[in-house]
Design goal:
CATH class of the largest domain: Alpha Beta
Keywords: FAD, Flavoprotein
Shape: globular
Radius of gyration: 21 Å
Distance between the termini: 25 Å
Structural class: alpha+beta
Number of helices: 13
Protein name: 2-hydroxy-acid oxidase
Number of domains: 3
Pfam family, one: FAD_binding_4
C-alpha cells in the first residue's frame, strides 16, 4: 500500500487495526529488518510523503515528509551552507542493501554519527513530528521552532521507536551551518587503553572535539586514534595545534586538514563491511571499552572492531553463530545490526519492559505497526 496523504494513511491503519492485520512500515528499504520473525499482512510504503515543505535557513529550520530521501535533505541544506548536526550514517555499505535512505527512517531508528558526542543525536535535533498511531489517529507534536515546551514530548519518544508506536509522516529539525574547515588529529599505533585515555583527555578539553574514534590494526594497517576539530579556519588551527600538543604525550601525532573521507568511512563503518559475518552495535561506558574489547578478543579471535563516541560505541564483526551478549555478559546494550539467530535488541530490565509495553498499548493497542521489530 502506498497512501498519498495522511488521511489515506490513517484510513489504512484504522482498517488494519479493526481486522488485526499486521503492517510493515517501509521507507527507503536500506536498513534490513530487525527483530523477531513476523509474517506481515501488508507493507505501507512512505513514498507518498516526500518533499521539503518548509526550509528557512535564517531560522535554522527544515520540515520534510518522512519519505523524503536523505540525499535530497542533504543537498537542500548544502546549497545554503547548512547540515543536519547529527551526521546520520548510511547503512547500505555495511548491510549490502539497496534503495535510498529516507529522513523518516533516520528518525525512526534515531540514527546518529560521530558528531553525536558534540551535537547530540538525531532526537536532539528533532523539534516536531506528525504521525499516525496504531488506531489510525493523526497526531502532531512539537513545532517548527527550537523553543517548544508545551505538552508531552512525543518528539523524543518517536525517535528510536522503529515505527512501533506510530508511522511518521512529517519531521521538523533544527539545522546548523557546515563548518568552514576541519582538522583531524591522528594518534598513531596506540593500543586500546592508550586510545581511550587519549580520547577521554581530548573530550574533556576545551577544544570542542566533534569526533573521537579508534581504529584497531586491521589487514596490515596500523591502529590509529582520530580526533576531529571543526569551525572557522583560524579557530580550528589554534585548537587543533593545542589538542595535538595535549595528546602528544600518548604517542606520535599528526594533523591533516579537511580529511572528510576518513570520517565518512567511520560514520558508515566501512572497515567492517564485506563478507557475511554478523555485525553488532554495542554501547558501553567509554571506560569499560578496553576490558570489553580484551574479553571479546579472548572469546573470539576473529573478531574485528571499531570504536566511536570516545569509546562509548563499539561496532563489532564476529561469526554469525557467536552470541556476543551471552559470551561477554555485556555491561551495556548490544544490538545485532546484521545477522540472525539472536534477538535483535538487548533485553530490557523488567521495569523498563513494562513501561515500554504500556506505551505500545496506548499508541498501538492491537499491535499492527511493525510488530516484533523490537522484540
Amino acid at each position: 500500500m502506498t497512501p498519498k496523504d495522511e488521511q489515506e494513511l490513517a484510513e489504512c491503519v484504522k482498517d488494519s487495526s479493526g481486522t488485526g492485520r499486521k503492517l510493515r512500515i517501509r521507507g527507503g528499504g536500506t536498513r534490513l529488518a530487525l527483530g523477531n520473525a513476523v509474517s506481515y499482512d501488508d507493507t505501507i510504503s512512505m513514498d507518498g510523503f516526500s518533499g521539503v515543505s518548509l526550509y528557512e535557513p535564517g531560522a535554522l529550520t527544515l520540515v520534510a515528509g518522512a519519505g523524503t530521501p536523505l540525499s535530497e535533505i542533504t543537498e537542500t541544506l548544502r546549497k545554503s551552507g547548512q547540515q543536519l548536526p547529527f551526521e546520520p550514517m548510511d547503512h547500505r555499505t555495511l548491510l549490502n542493501s539497496v534503495g535510498e535512505p529516507t529522513i523518516g527512517g533516520v528518525v525512526a531508528c534515531n540514527i546518529s554519527g560521530p558528531r553525536r558526542i558534540q551535537a547530540g543525536g538525531c532526537r536532539d535535533s528533532l523539534i516536531g513530528v506528525r504521525f499516525v498511531n496504531g488506531q489510525g489517529e493523526a497526531i502532531k507534536n512539537g513545532g517548527r521552532v527550537m523553543k517548544n515546551v508545551t505538552g508531552y514530548d512525543l518528539v523524543k519518544l518517536m525517535a528510536g521507536s522503529f515505527g512501533s508506536l506510530g508511522i511518521l509522516t512529517e519531521v521538523a529539525f533544527k539545522v546548523l551551518p557546515i563548518p568552514e574547515v576541519q582538522s583531524t588529529i591522528t594518534l598513531h599505533r596506540a593500543d586500546i587503553n592508550t586510545a581511550v585515555n587519549a580520547m577521554s583527555a581530548a573530550l574533556g578539553s576545551p577544544f570542542d572535539v566533534t569526533g573521537a574514534a579508534y581504529l584497531p590494526a586491521i589487514k596490515g594497517a596500523d591502529s590509529k586514534t582520530v580526533l576531529r576539530i571543526e569551525g572557522f579556519a583560524k579557530s580550528v588551527k589554534y585548537r587543533a595545534d593545542k589538542l595535538a600538543e595535549k595528546v602528544s604525550g600518548f604517542g606520535e601525532v599528526s594533523i591533516v586538514r579537511n580529511d572528510h573521507d576518513i570520517w565518512a568511512d567511520i560514520k558508515n563503518v566501512k572497515r567492517l563491511s564485506g563478507n557475511s559475518d554478523a555485525i553488532w552495535r554495542v554501547s558501553v561506558k567509554p571506560s569499560d571499552a578496553p576490558a570489553f574489547c580484551a574479553k571479546l578478543t579472548q572469546s573470539c579471535a576473529s573478531a574485528e572492531m571499531q570504536l566511536d563516541w570516545g569509546g562509548g560505541l563499539i561496532w563489532v564483526r564476529v561469526p554469525n553463530d557467536f552470541d556476543l551478549r551471552q559470551s561477554l555478559n555485556v555491561a551495556g546494550h548490544a544490538t545485532i545490526i546484521r545477522g540472525d539467530g539472536f534477538a535483535a535488541f538487548h533485553p530490557q530490565p523488567s521495569v523498563l519492559a513494562k513501561i515500554e509495553q504500556r506505551l505500545r498499548d496506548k499508541f498501538d493497542p492491537v499491535g499492527v505497526l511493525n510488530p516484533g521489530i523490537m522484540g
